[in-house]
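Data card: per-record layout.
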Amino acid sequence: MSPGFTFDFRNADIEDEVAHVVDDSSVAGSEDENQSGLSQPILHTLDDLTLDGAFFHVPRRELYDIRAQLMAEDTQAGENNTPIPGLSTDDIVPHVYEGGFKTWECAIDLANYLVTQHNGFARDATHDARIVELGAGTALPSSSLLQQWKSGLAATSPPLPNLDLIVADYNQYVLELATLPNIFLSWEFTSTSLNGEYDTTPVAIAEFVQDLKRHNVTISAISGGWGSPLISLMTPFPSTPKPVDTLILASETIYSTTSIHNFVQVLMDLLSNAESTGGAAKALVAAKRVYFGVGGGVDEFCGVLKKMGGAVVVVWETEGVGVGRVILEVVKAR
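The structure for this 334-residue chain is written out next.
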């Protein structure tokens, strides 16, 4: 990575206004037409992706640090490449870049909810667990859960439960430059708060991978658009006699009407697949009630979800502050 990571949140990188979205009216149409224009999903392991280069504290890589790394790599290679989308002025470019470098406001809501109000996750010998974050981006929600998981294991008697973490984002370069670096930082500094910079080394990364194995944690990443190809890349949970609890996380993923159907289909497929594991399965979706100018929002999402066999309840919401924000708990309708 570049010379260092920085940690504290800065307002410049946290979006609380209407996103700058390139017009996607030209790609609107049927679900089949929309799916055909998406990047095809690819499954990545940690070995595939380059890792070098109340109040709660989740370390996060700053956007300027990502820019510095890419500039240094171009200089070393003698290249002058076209800037990666998301590092310039556009927040979202439909079917090209879906906003993964920014820490969106509802991701903070969801991470805070998971830490302060969620009733925990399996950390005992009777249940294993799978966490899937869709549209992971900077991975704040799953990173906060991973910190909770690691902290809870200290009080867990052997044998330790298994945790399978899957992070999905439209862009592979977001997974490499933001998602996995933030997961690495969160795991490394579960019990230590650092302000400033942190230099990664091959030794630190190797120790991180080994520490995950010691704690029975596996991490994989999937890049590409939502749809059945993405689902097919999510391998079944390793054979285990124990029930497996599944928690699906998503924030700011229902901003566009052109993608809500595909997103709901992925949610419902994941919930259906989780039934075979014998454990509990639900999704937590954090979103603004209305996304002005791009057509998406909670009402549109709930309408599609109901038609596709889902049930939803609001478990958290803002009160009296600008555009309303909510966290929705989604399960299969019974």
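Known properties of this structure: Residues 1-34, 48-55 have pLDDT under 50 and may be disordered. Residues 6 and 196 are 5 Å apart (CA to CA).

See the next section for split statistics.
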